[in-house]
Amino acid sequence: MPQAPTSGGKEIDVINGEMFIGSRSLSGTSGEARAVNPATGETLDPVYRGATRAELDEACRLAWEAFDPYRSLEPETRARFLETIAQNILDIGDALIERAMAETGLPRARLEGERGRTVGQLRLFAQVVRDGRYLDLRIDPAMPERQPLPRPDLRLRKIPLGPVAVFGASNFPLAFSVAGGDTASALAAGCPVVVKAHSAHLGTSELVGRAVQAAVRTSGLPEGVFSLLFDTGRDIGQGLVADPRIKAVGFTGSRGGGTALMKIAQARPEPIPVYAEMSSINPVILFPGALAERGEKIAHGFITSLLMGAGQFCTSPGLILAIESDKLDEFIAGAGNALQSASAATMLTPGIHQAYEAGVEALRSHTAVQTIARGQAGQGYQGVPGLFSTTAEAFLADRKLAEEVFGSASLVVRCRDEAELASVLDSLEGQLTAALHITEADHEDARKLIPVLERKVGRILVNGFGTGVEVAHAMVHGGPYPSTADGRSTSVGTMAIDRFLRPVCYQDMPEALLPPELRDSSPYDRLLDGKTVLGA
Amino acid sequence: MPQAPTSGGKEIDVINGEMFIGSRSLSGTSGEARAVNPATGETLDPVYRGATRAELDEACRLAWEAFDPYRSLEPETRARFLETIAQNILDIGDALIERAMAETGLPRARLEGERGRTVGQLRLFAQVVRDGRYLDLRIDPAMPERQPLPRPDLRLRKIPLGPVAVFGASNFPLAFSVAGGDTASALAAGCPVVVKAHSAHLGTSELVGRAVQAAVRTSGLPEGVFSLLFDTGRDIGQGLVADPRIKAVGFTGSRGGGTALMKIAQARPEPIPVYAEMSSINPVILFPGALAERGEKIAHGFITSLLMGAGQFCTSPGLILAIESDKLDEFIAGAGNALQSASAATMLTPGIHQAYEAGVEALRSHTAVQTIARGQAGQGYQGVPGLFSTTAEAFLADRKLAEEVFGSASLVVRCRDEAELASVLDSLEGQLTAALHITEADHEDARKLIPVLERKVGRILVNGFGTGVEVAHAMVHGGPYPSTADGRSTSVGTMAIDRFLRPVCYQDMPEALLPPELRDSSPYDRLLDGKTVLGA
C-alpha cells in the first residue's frame, strides 16, 4: 500500500487550512478566505482564516528568539537545512502541482518547471552558504611598529540583518512565494523568515509551509526560524512590516502595494530596508540591421515571450521601440498575425484579469494608439492578448502610455530617428530589463544607447527577451526605482543574499573570541591587506 | 621670490568667499555668513553668501551631464584624478591648516594629522579604483548545450548610482568635509559630487574646493564632476537632496539633520539612499578581570580618548558599563582624578558648545546621576569635561540617559550583575562602536555578550577605544539605526565605495559591446561560474 509522503514522521501533503507559527500548526480565527480556481471560477476548499495580532506577535517573537542561535549555526547545518526544504518540496509530490494549477490557472509544465527552479535555488543557496564568499571577509593584520601610530588588527565579516518578512507573489506561487527566492536568500544569510502568504494560492502556500516547517523540525533548528501567516485583509501584512523585531522586507507585487510597505517601513522608530519588486515594461529595441536580417524570427520570439504565462511576468516585453521603416512595418504585421491566432489565457486572479482588461481598454480607446491585433476571444478570467502601436511623439506626450499593463499586452512605439528613440528611452522610469536586437552592423548605434540603458535597468539583454530569468551568480533581477524599491540589489541569483547582510568589524579581538571564519585558519576566500586570498 | 602654490596656472591658496559650480568660481548672492573663531569669538573674513536655487540647479545639471563621461573614464584616469586632489590639498600648504585652526579651534597637530588622513584616503581610493575589486565582476559563461534550455552568457559589474550630494561635517573639517571620505568614495565609484559646505568652516571648504576644482581642470574631466555650494539657511541643502539628478546622499551630523534629509529623500518621486551618520554613545564594557589587572591603565586610556578633540568624535566613549566592585570604584576614582585636572577645550561652534552645556547640565541635575568629576573651568566656547555615574536601574528607567552628549562627557553605569549589564546593552539603540576591556579570565563572559554587540554596533573593539578610526579595508564605521541611517554600509574604509554602486547584468552581449572589465581579457579579480579567479 503506498504511503503518504512524510517528513520527520508527519505527513506533509496535507491541506487543511493551517498556518504555521514556529512548531505549531493552527487555523486562524480572523476573517475568512478561500482560493478561487481562475479557470473555472470555482471556490476551493478548505476555508482559510487569517492570523490575529496576537499570532503575528508570537511569530515575530519566535523569529527574534531564533535569530542568534540560527545565525550562529555551523554553515554546513544551514546548508543542509536549505537542501532539506528542497527535498521536502519535491516529496510533496503531485499534490503540490495540482493544487498550484487549481489556484493559479497556470499549466502543469510551467509549474513543474517552477518547482524545479524553486528547488534549484534552495540548493544553490546551500552552496553559497558553504562557499562563504557572501561573508565578504577582510583581514588587515596589526602593524604594531607602524609610525606614528600602530595599526590595530581589523577583521570584517558580514552578518545577517535579523528576521525578514517575506510577501508571497501571485505570479510565482512557488519560486517567489513561501520558499521562493526571498525566503531562500534570507535563510541562507542567517535570517529567520516570517511569510505572509498571498491570498491567490493559499493551499499551495500551506503545502510549502508545511514542508519548510518539517525541515526546521528534522534539522533540529529553533522553531522560530520559519512561520507562515494568512491575512484576510491588510492588517497582518502591515503589522508584520511595522513589528520592531522584523529587520527587512522582501516583496513582489504591485507598485501600490510596494510603496505602501515602504511607507510603513520608513515610519518605524527604526526604519528598515524594503526590497519590493514592483513594475516594469521592459523596453525591447529593434535595430535596423536586425529587422532587415531576421525581422520575422524576432517577431516570433517576441510573441512567444509576450504570451508566456499569460504575460504575467515582471520581465514581459511591454514596450517595443524601433525607427520607422518598411522592415518595421513587416515586423509589426508579422507579430500581429502571430498574435491574432493566440488563445486567450487564464489569468492568476479575478483582480489581475480586471486590471488587465482595464489597461488594454485604455490602450484600445486611446486616440493616439492603434490596435494592431488582438488574440482569440476568451471567457471567465481569460485575458485576450493585445498588440498596439503609437508614435514616439504621442508616447512622450502621455506618461500613462508608459504604465505597466500586467498581462500579454505590448505597445510598439514608432520613432522617427535615433534621437527620438533615445528620447523615449530617456523618458522611461527604472526598469528590470531592456533588450537590444542587433546585428554587427548595428553595433555602433547600440553602443550609444548602452550608457542610457545602464542608468535605467538592471539587466541588458542582446538578441533575447527578458522572460526566463536564469538563477545564477551574475544575474540581476532588480533595477532603478520604481521597477524595484532599491536598485542596489537583486532578487534572483546568488547576489540576492547581500540584501540581508551588514558588515561588522572586529578590532584587536583575540583569536579565541573571533568568529571561526575570521581566524587565520579561515577556509574561505578573503581580502588580506587588500589582496584576494583564495580559501581552502 | 617664493611663488604662491598653483595648479594648472591658477593660485589655489586663495580665500575670497567663492564657491564653485563646475569650472566657475563665484560669490553667492543669497544671504550672508561668516565663519567664527570659536577660540576667540572673532568673526572671520571674508563674507560668504549662499547659492541661489538657480545656482543649485546649475550644479546639479552639470553633475548630471558629467555622469556618463566621468564614469566611463579609464580607471587610471580616475585614480590619478584622486591623487591629484590629494596633492593639491597638500600644495595649499599651511594656509589650509591655519584657516582650519581659526575656524574650528582644533589644534595644529590634530589638523595636520587630519590632513594626512584626508590625503591618505584619497590615495587609498585611487588604489581601489585600480584594483577593480569593487566592481564585483561575475561571469557565468553560456552553456548552449544545457538541457532542457541553454544557459545564456551572463556578466555582472557594478556601476555608480549617479551624482551624489555630500554634506560636510563640522567635526572633521578635512576628513569628512569637501574632499573627505564621502567625496573620495563617491568620486572613486564614478559619481560626480555636489558638496554643501558646512557653515562652521567656510574658508577651509573654499580652499579645499578650489583644490578639487583645479584637479578636475588639470585632469581634463567634465567640469560637473565637482561643485561646492554655500547655504546660509537650509534651502540649498534640502533642495540638493530633492533634486531629481542627485541619486544618493552622504551626511555626517546630528540626528535631527540626518532624519530631515531622510524624509526629503523618501518623499521624492524616486526615493534615494541617504547615508547619514548621526549619533552614538559607544558603550565601553569593563570586565572584572581587566579591572583587577589594570584598572588604572584603562582609566588613563579612557580619559585620553574622552578628551581627544574635545570629545567631538562620533566614536567618543560616552557610556561605561561595569559590574559593581571595589575595583570599579577604584577605576571611577582614578578616572575622576585624571579628568579633574583636564583643561576645558574650545568646541567647534557656539551651537555645539551650547548643546554640550545643556547635555551636561541635564546629567548634573538628574536626581539619579552622580557627578564624579568636572574638568577645569573654561571660558567662551570651551567645554568643561564631565564624568558622571548612575545605576543600571536608573539608566533603564530613563531613555534620556542614553542620548548622546556630543563632547567630553561620559556616564558610568553601575550594574548589579552580568544579567543587568546585558539588559542595559539590550536596551541601547544602534551604535557605531562598542569596546570590551578583558583579560583571558573574562573570555567566557565576554563571549556571551558578543552576539548582542554584533546586533547593536558596527565595530567591536577589544582593549581599546573607538576614537581613532583606521582607514583600511576591514574598517566599519557604521552601525544600526540611529547611529547611521543605513547599517548596511560604512563611511570609513574601502568598503565605503559599495554604498554608491548598483549591479547591472549583461546577457549575451557581444564582446565588442561589453565594458572592457567584463571581457574575457579582464585584468581584475572576478567570480567565474561561482569560483574566484584572481586578476592579472
TrEMBL record, chains A, B:
GO terms for molecular function: 2,5-dioxovalerate dehydrogenase (NADP+) activity. Keywords: Oxidoreductase. Its EC number is 1.2.1.26. Pfam families: Aldedh. Residues 30-486 form the Aldehyde dehydrogenase domain. Coiled coil: none annotated. It catalyses: 2,5-dioxopentanoate + NADP(+) + H2O = 2-oxoglutarate + NADPH + 2 H(+); 2,5-dioxopentanoate + NAD(+) + H2O = 2-oxoglutarate + NADH + 2 H(+). The keyword Transferase does not apply. The keyword Oxidoreductase applies. PANTHER family: ALDEHYDE DEHYDROGENASE-RELATED, SUCCINATE-SEMIALDEHYDE DEHYDROGENASE, MITOCHONDRIAL. Belongs to the aldehyde dehydrogenase family. This is 2,5-dioxovalerate dehydrogenase. It comes from Sphingomonas parva.
